[in-house]
Amino acid sequence: MLQPLTLIDRQNAQAFNEWGNQVGQCIGCDLNLKVSLEPSSTRTLVLASKETYGISVDAPVSILRFAKPERGLGNYNAGDLVGIIAPDCDIPRYYSLASSRSDGFLEICVRKQPNGRCSSFLSGLEAGQKVTAFVKRNPEFNVKHSQKPLILIGSGAGIGPLMGFLRGLRGRRPVYMYWGGRSKLSDFLYESTLDEMKDRGDLTALSTAFSRDQNPVYVQSKLLADEGNLRTQILQGADIMVCGGQAMAKDVSNILSDILSPLKITLADLKSQKRFVEDVY
Ligand SMILES: Cc1cc2nc3c(=O)[nH]c(=O)nc-3n(C[C@H](O)[C@H](O)[C@H](O)COP(=O)(O)OP(=O)(O)OC[C@H]3O[C@@H](n4cnc5c(N)ncnc54)[C@H](O)[C@@H]3O)c2cc1C
Questions:
Q1: CA within 20 to 30 Å of 25's CA: 57, 106, 114, 216, which one?
Q2: How many Å lie between the centroid of ligand 1 and the Cα of residue 246?
Q3: Per-residue pLDDT at 38 exceeds 60
């Protein structure tokens, strides 16, 4: 009654704390809610390597690869989440996994947010340094066992889990990938790995869009330009997986709805069949 309805996405502790603060203000009492999502078993991860992109276009993203811990963390798949407990952070922050346990390492892509505590901590790590972490399963965003086509769509650090899916599939499904960054020269994450995957046939087609290059393009324009192919793949039973920021995800959903419209299929139909899934933050 004091506040409009607030929805908390997947136990997001930050959003829950913000809601608690707002309710506290309404009732004139500092609620200071503490949510503890920290599981009893955390593990120490050691950073093996770090590659940073996007500094010159004001969108720093680091690919952080940690050595696989000897024990603990259990089984994990690309698209699951790793919770990181950074020093001086009251609550863990979640990052989407770009690797599965069978890859032999644990990888994440982290966009450094302005004054962001955990993302700045992670971006500043050097090889050999350690973090406290745990894994949270996210089965809704794991890739299905299927031979039908797969359409992967993302932007920025959202490429992380999509790369993890590609690594795991090794060409077992036709995969069409659409990804948007800012500048081909500055923040084209995984460029050489993607080239190798295309050469091996593990990636059927890659379409990239860069918003700060000479002819700015966004990922949704690439989808529209390829609408015929997308309809063909969807009629053949393709799954669609989207990962990245909320603005991109909204634009992508709108364009996909338009593309689906002549087929008399809605995005809601695909969602209910678990053929359209998103990991958006
Ligand atoms: C399910 C899930 C998966 C996620 N996966 C990833 C991932 O793979 N890679 C990744 O980089 N992040 C991911 N995130 C976001 C991540 O969990 C953190 O929220 C993010 O790194 C910011 O935390 P921080 O401690 O650095 O910022 P905070 O210290 O909490 O915030 C500092 C400032 O940054 C602003 N800020 C924080 N996040 C954003 C944002 N996304 N956009 C704009 N401003 C922001 C805040 O408003 C605040 O002003 C995911 C989040 C969820 C819920």
A1: 114
A2: 12
A3: no
Mean pLDDT of the chain: 94
Atom of ligand 1 nearest to the CA of 110: 11
Q: Which atom of ligand 1 is nearest to the CA of 108?
A: 8
Residue 39: pLDDT band with limits 50, 70, 90: low
Rounded to the nearest angstrom, the distance between the alpha carbon of 198 and the centre of ligand 1 is 31
| Helix (H) or strand (E) run with residue 277 in it | strand 276-280
* Cα–Cα distances in angstroms (integers) from residue 139 to residues 35, 79, 81, 274, in the given order: 23, 8, 10, 11
Which domains does the chain show, CATH number per domain?
1-35 (no CATH), 43-138 (2.40.30.10), 143-280 (3.40.50.80)
What DSSP string runs through 181-193? ES-HHHH-TTHHH
What pLDDT, on the 0 to 100 scale, is given for residue 33? 81
